[in-house]
Batch of 4 targets.
Target 1
Amino acid sequence: MAQMRKTALLEVIAGKNLGLNATETDKQAILSAIANLEDFNPTPRPLEASDLLDGNWRLLYTTSSELLNINRIPLNNLGQIYQCIRVKSKSVYNIAEINGLPFLEGLVSVVANFEPVSPGRVQVKFERSIIGLQRLIDYKYPASFIEKIESGKKFLAIDFPIQSNQQQGWLDITYLDNDLRIGRGNQGSVFVLTKS
């Protein structure tokens, strides 16, 4: 039953370009499919399943206007968005690739720490933002970029600390299996991600 619901969700979000191409009718159908799958969450205590949670996740669909509005940058299109979780260090790396004119591909990244506050909820504190051209940052893929951040590298980009007392929120992990994760954020946003 869960596999059928998972397949139904993946089918309804296919072709929606992270949510950019979703109509109001699509959004209602997607939210319904998400809720149906959440009822069959095989990991009710996701923060205790660090082997499942840890890793690089690619966004399939979201209702987050903050993320989708990145697509409004002139002459650019939102590419892949990753959320890379490092359970051991309680770190989260959000990375949005921006496709544009040749040699002008960009990157918007936010580094955060998280603290479990219940078996399924984390408090997130944003700490650093990096915005720049992929060429100047020498960005190839998320894992190598994260290694550079963890080594303390400063980038030839807009690279600044975030006052985490002011920039924080929470996220509920409402579904987690080997390759799919659903989260609901404090601003009412929904996120569907696949392990990459």
Note: Strands lie at 55-62, 77-86, 91-99, 106-116, 121-133, 158-161, 168-176, 180-185, 190-195.
Target 2
Amino acid sequence: MHIDWWTLALEAVNFLILVWLLQRFLYKPVMGIVARRRQDVDATFAEAEDARREAEAEAMTYQEKITALDKERLEMIRTVRAQIEEERKKLLAGARQEADELLSKQRQAIAAERAGALAELREGAADLAVSLARTLLREATTVSVAETFLERLRQRFLELSDAEKARLLGPAKGQTVLRVVTAPALTDAQRRRWQERLSESIGGQWTIEFGADEDLVAGARIHFPAASLEISWGSALKEARKELVGDESAA
């Protein structure tokens, strides 16, 4: 086999020239383009990573906001429920208080009506009892009963101390009239007799006037200048009526 060294040398030179040309005009621009593309890709990846991180940060912030809103919503719900419960308790307390006040007023009104009815009943019964007693006592009274009461009244006066007698008689100042009221009325003979008896018991110069008063029922009353003394079934019936009404009230 014969080798043409000149041809081989020329082909080698051509190949080297081709390699230089390819490196000069093709490889370096392509590598530059590839490098720039890689830089663009790296930048894109970096931007994407930044966007991903920003998105994750925004998502975390959004989640935190959602969590905060959920907590706030739950807190608002608890607050509203607490306010509703407090308002419900206030309304119930107010309703109970109004019901208690209304019940108390009703009880007071019922008690007042009952007390009024009982008072009317007591007074009516007492008035009826006193009226019956007055009627019976008047029918059973005689003229001699009036003298009995006058005698008891005279004895009561005599049993008084000097100071008490002086208070009854008071400063005369020229007044020397005593009024004696009885039930039933005294006869003329009885009046003359008691004129003398009372004048002796009281002492001094007294003009005694006699009268009658049916309210006494049976009894006597002496009107002195400063006060009066009385013993009668009428006053006893009045006291009995007060006691009857008082006893029923206490019951």
Note: The chain has two domains: 1-140, 143-250.
Target 3
Amino acid sequence: MNTKIAIVTGGSRGLGKNAALALAKKGNDVIITYHSKKAEADEVVTEIEKHGQKALALQLDVSNSKSFAGFASQVKSALKQKWNSDHFDFLVNNAGTGVHASFAETTEEQFDQMVNIHLKGVFFLTQKLLPLIADGGRIVNVSTGLTRFAFPGYSAYAIMKGGVETLTKCLAKELGARKITVNVVAPGAIETDFGGGAVRDNAEINSYIASQTALGRVGLPDDIGGVIASLLSEDNRWVNAQRIEASGGMFI
């Protein structure tokens, strides 16, 4: 069986790291991207290699779409040198940051940042990497429970993810001829350093979310990585254009 190669953006920490490790445990090789934390990214690479898989960390700023052509060239070279391949199989668009501000107080700069990272970034990075994705490959876009339920302070972030969910369906339609599936994984609130670590560190927020979740607790990175890896497995080859929410039953 040919080993599959995955690219996970934002793979040096949080959900991206968890997804990269879950993919490695299932026998996939992984290229992760990091924004600034090279040491953390290198640690993830070492951990993946301990599972017997090949791994590589490449720097990428997903808010800077002008850098994507250069990044795609780096990926192409890396695939040739490390894998003797022209293609990779799975793309996980995970990298991102959040903005927490009321609608009335959200600045244009904050809004533009969310557009660049979550909407423009996902759109054009996927476009630039498309020639390198193998026919029969998979794309998973990471969204949020906030596209289903509203939570004050996240309007700018949530609407970008709503755009990503619509893009997912459009891509699934357009890439069907190449047998590439495109799906969304939408995590609920997770204990990570995302958004300044509010869910993890603010006991009041944590307790409130736990009380509103059917399974009675806040999510952990370990709850999400496996969902992403599972969607990319052969068992889920017929799942396409779907939004899979992994929230433990938040606000149902």
Note: Helices lie at 14-25, 38-50, 68-83, 108-129, 155-175, 198-201, 203-211, 222-231.
Target 4
Amino acid sequence: MQKPDTSLDEIDFAIISSLQNDGRTSFTVIAEKLNVSIGTISTRFNRLLDEKVITIVGRVDPGKVGFGSYAHVAVYVRPAALKESVAQKIALMPEVSFLAGTFGDYDLEVDVMCRDNDHLVDFVNSISVIEGVYHTKTTIYFKVYKYAQPDLGLLDK
């Protein structure tokens, strides 16, 4: 198991968990729940932000805001030495919501949100011309059943 980059304790995890449940939860409510001061919550929250353990985002339902084509693109890179360069170029593209290097059938896993299928075709064509991209395989998600952050309770098992 990979060791975390930063040292987090039970209070840090409880703060993160509370905010994952409802990002608008006040420091007062969290402090009362954890039986600590508001200052403790504020200080820890700011440290978590500074250390980039958490970020503040407004998560949207892609379909409800106009992203009608949500897809997974498997990218095959040849030669393998270009994998990092290809990943860096793809990471800059605004359609990309998730990008990871993989071991297995393909080299990069890319999740994208596009306005429609024409936009998706344009996106796939734009990555296909990146030096090192040998082949792509696109799977369109027709319905997303769950879109969430990891449950921190899984770390206790």
Note: Strands lie at 69-77, 96-101, 108-114, 133-141.
